[in-house]
Amino acid sequence: RHFADEGDLCPEWNHAVLAQVIAALPLVFRALQCLRRFYDAPSAKKHLLNLGKYLTSIAVVVTSASTGKSIATIVLSVVATVYSAVWDIKVDWALSWKQLRRLRQQKKKKGQ
Fold it and tell me: Nearest 5°: phi and psi at 71?
């Protein structure tokens, strides 16, 4: 009832800073993990590419916190989303584009 009467009593910095830090922390932890894995195995360049996935997502959080809904935020969001999707499909799931087409065709046949 108190919230309904008084509204949001959190200070403005809570929304401007704290929420963004909480959003970025898991990404920072994963980015640091990628750096550590590259440090342990410098020949495995895929860890640097994986780091790029997390850095683009961190850039989205930082840009949206500083500029709000700007063109830069939208562009970075699209880049981060495409980068993450391609990485997940090609590396994490180890699927080629040919395998994806085959899966889509199998799904279509089952639906008919």
Answer: -60, -40
